[in-house]
Amino acid sequence: MSVEALLEIQGLRVSIGTGATSVVPLQGVDLSVQYGTRVALVGESGSGKSLTAAAVLGMLPSGSVVEAGSVRLDGAELIGLPDRRMRDIRGRRVAIMFQNPRASLNPVLTIGGQIAEVVRVHEGLTRRESQERAIELLDQMGIADAKRRAHDYVHQYSGGMAQRAALAMALSCRPSLLIADEPTSGLDATLQQQVLELVTEQTDSMGSSLLLITHDIGLASSTCSETVVMYAGRVMESGPTERVVGDPRNPYTSELVRAYRNVGPGRMNSIPGTVPVLRDFVARCSFADRCPLAEDRCRESVPVPRAVDGREVACLIA
Amino acid sequence: MAIARYVVRRLGYLAIALFIVSLITFVVTRVLPGNPVYLIVGVQADQAIADAVAVRLGLDLPVQEQYLRYLGQLFLGDLGSSWRTGNPVSFDLAARWPATIELASVALLVALLWSIPLGIVAGLRERSASDRIASALSGFGVSIPEFWLGMVLILVFFGILGIAPPPLGRTLGDIPPVVTGFLLVDALIDGDGTALGAALRQIVLPATTLGFVIGAPLLRTTRTFMREAMLSQYVRSAKALGLPHRSIVLRHALPNVLLPVTTMLAMLYGYLLGGTVLVEYVFAWPGIGKYAVDSISSSDYAPVMAAVLLSAVSYLLVYLVTDLLHFFIDPRTRS
After folding, report:
1. Is A1 a residue whose pLDDT tops 50?
2. What residue spans define the domains of chain B?
3. Tell me: the pLDDT tens digits for B156-181?
4. Which CATH fold topology does A7-105+157-313 show?
5. A-chain residues within 8 Å CB-CB of B238?
6. Is A107–B256 a contact, with Cβ atoms under 8 angstroms apart?
7. Across the interface, do A121 and B243 touch by the CB < 8 Å criterion?
């Protein structure tokens, strides 16, 4: 692992709530994104992917506490940064694109006005300058007749256009890191491909890194050079995509890849059991109860990530 | 252009609605037990005299014929006369409705001023101090009867503290010359500071009573929709783009809250414009609500009909204005 990563998350542990209802959804996440690369963060729902993104943006749900670990952007620690400073980073250094872009756009503000506001806030442009930038951005994202469409509202945009507008907004200040949280779920296959191509094309041209959050391993492997597999608040396996997905070493990754490969007509292959609710810090392998290869020692300590065949694997058996 | 067409269509609906309201009210008033004839001539009177009065009032005709006759008069702008006051109904209404409109408007202003800001602040953070206060006040507001609150206010501010005028309606020493019929406005036009002060002092307690009671549901609505807006994805997205809190609340969340809140405001204003019987009674307010109820109890048909129609018209007009307002707030209604 290189010393200077754009984003470096180490041992991130987050708990939410107190007392009987408290949970520890992030058990110690390690993840890094190098400059100008695309990294996929994959895992089942509830594995902590989106929460990890929220922690990077300093937007954890209320009642959350970062118990341990660090999040560094360009070497500067983000955990514990006051909200005022975080606000300066959000949108300017790190931007996020949520699932369902239509809902991310305000129904009562014009598309152009929303994009212009972001530019105005971060780059101190005038109203006119920022409006021009918004039109440029929309044009750059492939919105035809951007000058006129900038005055439209989200209900006048088609799904694909809303997607482009949301991307324009996220990339308006040329952030170093774009987090795309399930950007294509709910879209049909052709549109999915178009959106992903647009996202990668734009982030590449800006020299930005992409952290693609998805549950779709196929999407991850077609888009990203690096893949990080998360399960129950921990990273199970991470490394070059062709290693992690092509030749998984962690039993969890193998199961995930197998489940993905067998989707289609006929019987679907699923991993038996469900993602556990993490009431507390789990001092053993979280996957042990569902793992076909689990041994006694898996339940005795947390597996430490180690280098195996060109990737990092957090498994004693691998 | 589109707006003009829309308004014309809405006014057409309004006419249809009024026709239906008039029909229902007419049937209901005629079907209800009670007959003005005996109230007019007295129960001891000769049948011949009673019949003569009935003929004069047109009550001897079949109901459908009475209705057609009423509709014909209404079309010519004649609302009939009240036998109780001896005046044409339009005259009585002109004397009373301004008092109701003034009370309704000031009450709405009071409600707006306390409930909407509090609702916005309470909706920002769940279980914060302001949220708890808001929830206590709105719970109190929706559960107390308005006449009770009116009496408590009278007891405290007139009876004990002696800083409010007695609840005797709008009695003034010197009435400013009538220009608009609205006492507050007329006093202002006249430049009569004393009359204006007196009129204001008289309206404070009834308007506060109504303003508090109708402010409670308004507070609830504002809080709920503010909460929803703050949890919405467009607000989360605005936060994630590093926009300042102030802009998120005022520019991104608030306009989305104003849509349901203005609808509710319109509903409440329409309700108030129809006259608020209990509060008008408690404060001896010479408004349309009290007039309507007094007319019902003496089977005085024409004023009842007129009061109901007036109430319906004001309701529908307020709604029309609100929908036009939405036209400007909500881009979705424009296309």
Report:
1. no
2. 13-75, 97-289
3. 999 999 998 888 888 766 778 888 88
4. Rossmann fold (3.40.50)
5. 106
6. yes
7. yes
Q: Burial level of B207, CB count in 10 A (0-12/13-18/19+)?
A: buried
B255 contacts on A by Cβ (under 8 Å): 108-109
| Average pLDDT, rounded, for chain A | 90
Q: Are B100 and B275 in contact (CB under 8 A)?
A: yes
Q: Find all residues with CB under 8 Å of B261, minimum gap 6, and list them.
A: B116, B119, B218, B221, B222, B225
Residues B240, A95: C-beta atoms closer than 8 Å: yes
Shortest Cα distance, chain B CAs vs residue A156, angstroms: 8
Give A105 to chain B, closest Cα distance, Å.
Answer: 5
pLDDT digits 0-9 by tens, A136-171: 999 999 999 999 999 999 999 988 899 999 999 999
Which residues in chain A have Cβ-Cβ distances shorter than 8 Å to B229?
none
Distance, in angstroms, between B194 CA and closest chain A CA?
46
CA closest to A175 among chain B residues: B241
**Given this model, what pLDDT does residue A3 score?**
59
CA dist., res. B212 & res. B73, Å (int): 40
Predicted local confidence at residue B3, as pLDDT: 81
Q: How many CB atoms lie within 10 A of CB B61?
A: 14
pLDDT at B14 over 60: yes
CA–CA separation, B226 and B204 (whole Å): 29
Quick check: A107 and B332 CB within 8 A?
A: yes
Q: How many CB atoms lie within 10 A of CB A136?
A: 17
Sequence spans of domains, chain A = 7-105+157-313
Measure the CA–CA gap between A171 and A141, rounded to whole angstroms: 10
Of B238, B251, B332, the CB nearest to A155: B332
pLDDT at A264 over 60: no
Residue A118 pLDDT class (50, 70, 90 cuts): very high
* Mean pLDDT to the nearest integer, B135-139: 93
**Closest CA relative to residue A71, chosen from A61, A63, A79:** A79
CB contact under 8 A, A96 and B240: yes
A36's CB contacts (< 8 A; 6+ apart) are: A204, A207, A208, A209
Question: What percent of chain A clears pLDDT 90, i.e. is strictly above it?
Answer: 68
Contacts of B251 in chain A (CB under 8 A): 109, 117
Cβ pair B120, B257 in contact under 8 A: yes
Distance CA B218, CA B264 (A): 7
**Smallest Cα–Cα separation from B254: which of A109, A157, A115?**
A109
pLDDT given at position A185: 77
Q: Which of B242, B255, B330 is opposite residue A91, by nearest beta carbon?
A: B242
This model of the complex carries an ipTM of 0.89
Does the distance separating the beta carbons of B256 and A95 come in below 8 Å?
no
Distance between CA atoms of residues B244 and B226, nearest Å: 17
CA B325 to chain A, closest CA, distance in angstroms equals 14
Question: What is the mean pLDDT of the segment spanning B186-195?
Answer: 85
* pLDDT above 80: residue B317: yes
Summarised one tens digit per residue, pLDDT across range A229-257 is 999 999 999 999 999 999 999 999 998 88
Architecture of domain B97-289: Orthogonal Bundle (1.10)
